[in-house]
């Protein structure tokens, strides 16, 4: 049987070992459009706050800085477009879905769609890239992205604080809790792998039927 508690704890240990740079880097990577589990980074940040090694404001600045860095890089990669990263992402079904969603949002809400894209998890990792492709002016993108990432970072830190409290209050449920966290953190990776496998099987059967 897979020890989900041990797996999740191992991820936390790695981030704890490398400290603040690991927290910053993990949030940067996720906002580059690369699916990366950041939940452990938030929990480590809350642990540092609880032990008085980091203030809430400092944690907010570091995580928000990572999100902004990843978002800005992703925006310019999409804006200029002629690069390996951009070509790979353009083929992604997730990116196509994000483009469809953001297009509808822009038609309804205009620039506020940028703010919404930073607050809703299933489009956030790819939103900056898509906004860059759309040629949205950088100033407008940066303004709404700063507001959006500031809000979501604050909310996620508060949620992580409650998660830590529950973790400490109910040690007898940690195994179950770890399974839930593992599913949240790694579920998307499992989905991606399954999607690739299913896609290749379908292509194989199509070639075989011709």
Automatic annotation (TrEMBL):
<feature type="transmembrane region" description="Helical">
    <location>
        <begin position="59"/>
        <end position="80"/>
    </location>
</feature>
<keyword id="KW-0472">Membrane</keyword>
<dbReference type="GO" id="GO:0005886">
    <property type="term" value="C:plasma membrane"/>
</dbReference>
<feature type="domain" description="VTT">
    <location>
        <begin position="40"/>
        <end position="157"/>
    </location>
</feature>
<dbReference type="Pfam" id="PF09335">
    <property type="entry name" value="VTT_dom"/>
</dbReference>
<protein>
    <recommendedName>
        <fullName>VTT domain-containing protein</fullName>
    </recommendedName>
</protein>
<keyword id="KW-0812">Transmembrane</keyword>
<feature type="transmembrane region" description="Helical">
    <location>
        <begin position="176"/>
        <end position="198"/>
    </location>
</feature>
<feature type="transmembrane region" description="Helical">
    <location>
        <begin position="126"/>
        <end position="144"/>
    </location>
</feature>
<dbReference type="InterPro" id="IPR051311">
    <property type="entry name" value="DedA_domain"/>
</dbReference>
<keyword id="KW-1133">Transmembrane helix</keyword>
<keyword id="KW-1003">Cell membrane</keyword>
<dbReference type="InterPro" id="IPR032816">
    <property type="entry name" value="VTT_dom"/>
</dbReference>
